[in-house]
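Input record, target 12 of the design panel.
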């Protein structure tokens, strides 16, 4: 408890305060083929939710993860089961599934895949989405030339009410490269005009 109080003070001092209406975000990734590591990930995320709630942090950004060695359907089942487990005890924290670039066996490579996860999670009112601009560009969504269409597609498939955070990044890659290589804002293929 002493450490939680110190963290609250630090959050307030650095102006990331839990009391000013803005929510600091935490990054986390979960999915694992190995049972012990999978159990550890679920336990860790459960504890992370408790820590966030104790600190007044309202959102956790979660990279759904990679299903290395798993069929894509099994990777989806893995993340859905894990989310069902960890959200049982979540009171105020919303987990924001981050859109992914689609490299390798990454889960969350399309709006439809994110929607499939949301639909299967029982307490999906505790789920949101973090839209990463580098990831969706690398995943094939043309936000430079067709931003309105991409936003409309996001709204149609997932719903804008689920958009809880944006990771604003540029990218080193061409559209649809599925590589996830971030670049300084304005120095990549998105460019400053598209980002602003």
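The sequence produced for target 12 reads:
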């Amino acid at each position: 408890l002493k450490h939680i109080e110190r963290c609250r003070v630090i959050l307030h001092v650095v102006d990331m305060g839990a009391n000013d209406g803005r929510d600091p975000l935490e990054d986390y990734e979960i999915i694992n083929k190995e049972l012990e590591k999978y159990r550890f990930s679920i336990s860790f995320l459960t504890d992370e939710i408790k820590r966030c709630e104790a600190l007044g942090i309202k959102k956790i950004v979660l990279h759904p993860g990679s299903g290395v060695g798993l069929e894509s359907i099994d990777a989806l089942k893995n993340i859905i089961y894990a989310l069902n487990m960890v959200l049982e005890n979540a009171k105020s924290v919303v987990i924001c599934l981050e859109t992914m670039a689609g490299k390798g066996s990454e889960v969350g490579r399309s709006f439809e895949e994110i929607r499939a996860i949301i639909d299967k999670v029982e307490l999906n009112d505790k789920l949101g989405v973090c839209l990463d601009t580098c990831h969706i560009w690398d995943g094939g969504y043309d936000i430079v030339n067709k931003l309105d269409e991409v936003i409309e597609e996001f709204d149609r498939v997932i719903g804008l009410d689920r958009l809880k955070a944006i990771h604003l990044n540029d990218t080193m890659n061409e559209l649809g490269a599925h590589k996830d290589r971030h670049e300084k804002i304005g120095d990549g293929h998105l460019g400053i005009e598209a980002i602003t």
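The radius of gyration is 17 Å.
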